[in-house]
Amino acid sequence: MATSMAIESPIPVTVLTGFLGAGKTTLLNHLLRQPEMAATAVMINEFGEIGLDHLLVEALEEDAILLQAGCLCCTIRGDLSAALQRLAARVEAGQEVRRVVLETTGLADPVPILQTLLADPAIGRHFTLAGVVTLVDAANGLATLDSQSEAVRQVAVADRLLVSKPDLADAAMLEALLARLAQLNPGAVPVLAANGAAPVEALLGEGRFDPADHGEAVRGWLDASAWNGHHHHHHHHDPNRHDASIEAFCLTFDRPLPWQGLATWLEMLTATRGASVLRVKGILDLEGQEKPVAIHGVQHVWHSPTLLSGWPEGEPRRSRIVFILRDLPRAVVEDGLAAFVQAARAS
């Protein structure tokens, strides 16, 4: 039986952020296999009512905590505080937790999250904000920084910057991205992380997050005296909407899907409406395949499907595909997918 114990020193919390499709889950899966990451608790927030990332992080077992309250920057503060307090109780009951990694949804403005971790006295009794790691997609990073204010803030508050998918960007594009990152955050030296591989030190680092290490704009954002507990954006509190133009939803299929029809439709969708497809992520039950297949897409870029080791324990065997779309009606996706799947089954 575990014995009760006090938390002698604050447990470090690292915030892992980055825009949609930057590769946060892939990075976590790589790092959590390293011995230095033993006894790490991971908290995962996902945008929308149905999350998948907690099923795709393979090495977490009981230490995966899903914070599923929609847009983290709007509604997660209370959930985050409560989840950390529950984790503290588990540690006091004898469970070993050396560190916490909080993976934010790609649409999150990290500033209110950091304010919560820095200013909430209930959190401060047992935890300390150790740093912010921001992942930036080499292929889409420049366009994302131009169009998404959240992505700019994710970069600006980072202690450590990781550039994912450098193999998908040519030399000129990569050089331009690195220059933009240096402009936004001159204190963080970017590390290239091909295929989600990065040294453990890139995530853990040392010390404690200090607003004084960042620029005047970041210090202003994090000024707790100016924070009244309300988000500075006027986001909808529908858990599936980030703003009026961005919507998330999940399609679920109890019958195995034909890969040919699904793949053809996905190619058509991204070729014709790729700019509106911010993110597609799914776990698929395919015809003729016993193991689940994971798919990942960001705008016009699709990654090779991944065969998982098995179906997550306790989860029903069925296909679930999460879409995050901008200015694209849900009905267009549902109707198009249904037509291609039906045609493939009939052939």
TrEMBL record:
CDD domains: CobW-like. It comes from the Bacteria. GO terms for cellular component: cytoplasm. Signal peptide: none annotated. Keywords: Chaperone, Hydrolase, Nucleotide-binding. The keyword Glycosyltransferase does not apply. GO terms for molecular function: hydrolase activity; nucleotide binding. Residues 246-341 form the CobW C-terminal domain. Pfam families: cobW (PF02492), CobW_C (PF07683). This is GTP-binding protein. It comes from Teichococcus wenyumeiae.
